[in-house]
User: Fold this.
Amino acid sequence: MTAKLETKQDFEKLVGNGYFSVLFTKRDGTERRLNGRLGVFKHVKGTDKRKTLPDDLIIVYDQKKRAYRSFRLNSVKEVKAGGTVWRRQQP
Assistant:
């Protein structure tokens, strides 16, 4: 799929409300595949204080780890969601 993936809204539109898989590069340079879902608030703990987060930070509930994880949008290499596969094109 050749859709753009430049903003959080682009990512949310691509993955929808269901489960998805994303391959991204971690800060240390290693690759990680995460199977998760957006919009899960059931396990949120803490106060009601909201932090200002960077626009390119995606927060996901990781189904396998049963914990929240985050990654930078520009580090995403591949997304699989709803039978669709998106891959970042290499320059």
